[in-house]
# Entry
Amino acid sequence: MSPPRKMSPLWMATPLGILLLFSLCHFSCSQHSEGLSQDFQFVQPILNPQICPDGYDFNPERNQCEDRNECEMIPDACKGTLKCLNHFGGYMCLPRTAQLFVTTQALTENTFLERVAIEREREARPLPSTQAGIPQRSSNRRPAVFGGSSSSSWSTRPPTPVPSARAPVAPLVQPHRTDGTELVSSQQITCRAGLSPDATGKCVDIDECAGGLHQCRPPHECVNAVGSYTCQCPSGFRNYDRHCVDINECHFGYCSHDCVNTPGSYYCQCNLGFALTADNLSCVDVDECLGNTPCSQRCFNLYGSFMCRCNSGYELESDQRTCRDVDECSLSRFLCQHECVNEPGAYRCSCPHGYLLHTDTSSCRDVNECDDNVHNCSVGDTCFNINGGYRCTPQLTCQAPYTLISENRCVCPSEIPVCQDRAYIVLHKYMQILSERTAPTDVFQMQATSQYLGAYYTFRISSSNEGGEFMLRQTGPVTAMLMLTRPIKGPRDIVLDLEMLTRNTVMNIHGSSIIRLTIFVTGNSF
# Structure
């Protein structure tokens, strides 16, 4: 059986920190140990005080190397606001908010034997000459320093210590076996920043984001990483000098029409007459004429708009959407001969009593009640039709000394003495004049039916022209024309006596004849 070998400390350095493993093991060999034939125990070895590495001092009472507390020995070891934290074989300068976690690790039997071999090799190597037999510490030992970086998402990683120029080695003490297969150290080791020990003795990540251990300020978001975390700006923001600055997405032309930037986002708007598609970026024309049309009558869709039109007889209001009725009757007085009646979207012409609407739907035609036998004249009366009505003229009777010689003639014979100063004949005539007929105008002509040699004729209105509406104008030796001098408004009945005087100076003969003209002025001008 080979004699037991001295064990040397084992140290490991990682980029984010120094992991020191100290094994204080009670090691016993059994039949399970490969290459050993019987059980045995290691006893506490007597260590050479010259094997203590940098950062350790030899304790002769305990016969072991003990860590030197540089934080107490070196005045102002850490500059500024950094705090000094003593560590195995050295010290670290950390931010005051930094935390240090430790964990345990298990050593296998083979690893323990490898460390014994390393210790023997160190004993066989000559040490440099130093005072009091203690190795001189390296002059380039320095506290850990920390670096920084700048990116779009700035990192708040816990600081990474830089190891000393000469790696410290932890002393070993007597090991002990726990279950026959592993050797577990009786001391804890430190996990690098951002890690903490779990129940199995492994260093696991600390979720600084979930535990509220981060230093991300709103609106930054904490994103966890193994052993660290980063502060990132939320979507729609970019990092500028550790501040989250809104990204104006509208500069990128995502929207087909209008873009509205909002903090951390944006949205698209369409011009009037367009609507957003499902991608919320593009715009399509809206057919406003579908469904509830904005027009009161006719709607025509246009690209991005629409146009309203009205049916015949309507016109657009000022809002260009509502249609209102056009009062055609107020636009012209010539649409209808008599009366114009406005209706929604149209108009119609009406005629007064005694007229019917003509086929042209605008003018009126007279109803001839006499020919149509729709009058109410008595038996013996004569029906005289006028525009818009009729008159019933009674059967003619002559007043004495006149006698009736025909249906419309009365004669006063010259043999009767009283007739010598009267008109020989009175002829009854009837006519109509339209109300407000244009004047002056000729309305009736009269002439002598028989002529005598050497006689001449004169004409006059002998009665019923007090208003002077008529004048009898002689147009020839035996003819005269009745003139309307001014318009007459009806309905009205006028009876005029138109007298023709006959004179013969040679034979000293004179006489007269009268036409008794009854004029019916209609109630309408048509």
Q: What stands out?
A: Residues 2 and 17 are 37 Å apart (CA to CA). The first strand starts at residue 10 and ends at 14. Residues 1-47, 103-117, 127-152, 156-187 have pLDDT under 50 and may be disordered. The two ends are 155 Å apart (CA to CA).
